[in-house]
Backbone:
DNA sequence: CGGTTGTTTGAACTGATTCAATCTGTGTGG
DNA sequence: CCACACAGATTGAATCAGTTCAAACAACCG
């Protein structure tokens, strides 16, 4: 469930500010954004947070954790269509959004009102330019995901997701290990498969010696080969 | 091939202006856009137009026809990741775009320079708001495509594409017919299948009595049932 | 301990691919 | 008008990747 917390000055903006700066925002702009009236919300994973089809008149910025946008086809099969990492945001839009929002892992999210956010962006061109770039980046990740679900086989899809995740969450490739944030069901919902098959793919990758697993933890025993089978070209992440 | 043409006043902007207005742009803004230094280019279908991985420092607006953005996985399997109809645009971005551009059918495209376009948008907030909405719309179409390739079976995917195409190209549903703009290979490239299977799906749809075919022309004999099997909810198009 | 959530495995099945051949329509040059 | 080339559509047979269903197992937590 969602537990709003009162906002203490020590806690609310400080770490989000860092994330925004890491995402390429200039410090003084990050300050303006963080100073916006808002609250920090704890979001529990795999619990309803925002349902599809309701008005999306708020801005959200991920402070920690990972959020997902999801949709489902007519018959309730779920597809995750986008991920948001710390420093990423979900911008308001007119009317209802057809996607819902859930957390992948326990996350801290700053939530503000569209009516506070929009004037800020209109007033500061640098801010608008920053979000423009952010949107383009998410866009091009979306295109890559389409290639992934449309054209790659199940092994490549999972390998690609792992490569992308490592890259986006800033894992140092010299560390050969990463705490995989996803359940197998979530990997299935991202890559358009069943969790049963995802399980088999993980087992395969391990058998092939590309990864080792210890519970949720994944150790990359052959980075370059993993990226090769994934067809992973990090260019689309800029 | 690409044949640039000299721009005659009678021809260059007039019909594009209408398309932009139809897309929701106010007339005076459409005028400003059309007045931009630019040329009108004829683009032949299924021929290289813009290759992936090169700088994309131009704006393009579709005046007639349909453009596609495509990518390919490592091994050359092509995936179409977005379509652009008359009134739609492809905006410039910093650096290289990882997608290429090809026409689906013979198209007329207005091409301008990013350096002429960007100041215009920065200067006129209404224009920037218009493009913001356009981008959000394309975004939400992208999400729906992810659901399509990730979660629907081959029949539903094709039915969905047909429904979306009719809607986006403004076919009146009372006309029960549409000139299908796509080759079966293109449908395959959009929906993530092989052309062989697309052929079988078309035959199936016809056998089920949802469509009739005369060459490229498709007659919709049961609109509502087609949309039902597609799981088509037009909300995402706004 | 019991409940919940996530992972693993097997067996049967099916939707879609692959490969290869044929067919059809359209445009081109002689 | 015919011959030829070319692009796209159609069909069949064999194969395979991924799903479905069902059951068991493991880890965690109050």
Residues:
């Amino acid at each position: 469930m969602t537990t709003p917390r009162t906002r203490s000055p020590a806690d609310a903006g400080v770490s989000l500010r860092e994330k925004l700066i890491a995402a390429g925002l200039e410090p003084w702009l990050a300050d303006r954004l963080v100073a916006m009236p808002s609250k920090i919300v704890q979001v529990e994973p795999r619990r309803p947070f925002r349902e599809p089809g309701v008005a999306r008149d708020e801005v959200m910025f991920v402070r920690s954790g990972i959020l997902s946008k999801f949709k489902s086809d007519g018959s309730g099969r779920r597809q995750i269509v986008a991920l948001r990492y710390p420093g990423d945001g979900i911008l308001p839009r007119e009317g209802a959004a057809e996607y819902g929002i859930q957390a992948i892992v326990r996350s801290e999210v700053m939530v503000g009102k569209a009516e506070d956010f929009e004037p800020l962006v209109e007033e500061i061109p640098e801010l608008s330019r920053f979000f423009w770039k952010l949107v383009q980046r998410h866009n091009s990740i979306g295109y890559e995901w389409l290639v992934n679900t449309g054209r790659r086989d199940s092994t490549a899809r999972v390998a690609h997701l792992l490569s992308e995740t490592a890259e986006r969450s800033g894992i140092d490739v010299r560390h050969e290990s990463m705490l995989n944030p996803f359940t197998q069901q979530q990997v299935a919902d991202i890559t358009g498969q069943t969790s049963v098959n995802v399980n088999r793919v993980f087992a395969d990758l391990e058998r092939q010696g590309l990864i080792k697993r210890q519970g949720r933890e994944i150790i990359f025993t052959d980075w370059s080969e993993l990226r090769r089978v994934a067809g992973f070209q990090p260019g689309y992440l800029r």
In short: Residues 1-11 of chain B have pLDDT under 50 and may be disordered. The CA atoms of residues 43 and 176 of chain B lie 29 Å apart. The domain at 7-117 of chain B is CATH 2.60.120.10 (Jelly Rolls). Residues 153-154, 193-194, 196-197, 200, 215 of chain B lie near DNA strand C (CB under 10 Å from a C1').
